[in-house]
Amino acid sequence: MNTEYPSSTWTTVPLMTLAPSDARNATTSAISCGSVILFRSCSAAKVAYLRDELGFDEAFDYHDGPVREQLQRAAPDGIDVYFDNVGGEQLEAAIATMNLHGRITVCGMISVYNATEPTPAPRNLAQVIGKRLTLRGMLVSDHGDLREAFIADVAPWLADGSIKNQETIFEGLAQAPEAFLAMLRGAGFGKNLVRIAG
């Protein structure tokens, strides 16, 4: 467990960008640490799955209205920790909703990867100063030294069924482009995989 950022007893953690399979894994970790879990998804079916099957405290579909409004409704007391791999409007909404001394981990910016012009959001970066927020970029490859601790924490959850894998299978190498594009669109549940006959 990373002790560099000590956690409060009760932390509101929005996981606004993960696939449902990752959401399940993150939920298990966060619930074990006593956290309120929020999730932003891309369909009513996924919202229902997150709430009913995975036990999220709150979930919302970003198509249903401005993300900031939905996030602030879901977390009226603000959020303490935010994991982002979307950027743009999502990150702007999180910054607006962060509590004093909140922590943000950024591991991606999928909303701007294909932008042909500079994107305006997040337009509220000045709030980082007043709220004394910590923003940190993260690459999994930086944390190889934590692999054994991760396995020790997660293996029991896999063994007892607390963590379950969800996969959407695309058949044949010819489907690889569609599998990739479907992942970018948020289509399917869990990991999008391509099965290649051996």
Summarize the topology.
Elements: E1 11-15, H1 20-32, E2 35-41, H2 44-52, E3 58-61, H3 67-74, E4 79-84, H4 88-97, E5 98-106, H5 127-130, E6 134-137, H6 147-160, E7 167-171, H7 176-185, E8 191-195
Parallel strand pairs: 1-2, 2-3, 4-5, 5-6, 7-8
Helix pairs in contact: 3-4
Description:
Helices cover 34% and strands 23% of the residues. It has seven helices and eight strands, in the order E-H-E-H-E-H-E-H-E-H-E-H-E-H-E. It has helices spanning 20-32, 44-52, 67-74, 88-97, 127-130, 147-160, 176-185; strands at residues 11-15, 35-41, 58-61, 79-84, 98-106, 134-137, 167-171, 191-195. A three-stranded parallel sheet has the order 1-2-3, with helices on both faces. It has a three-stranded parallel sheet with strand order 4-5-6, covered by helices on one side. Helix 3 runs parallel beside helix 4. It is globular and about 55 Å long.
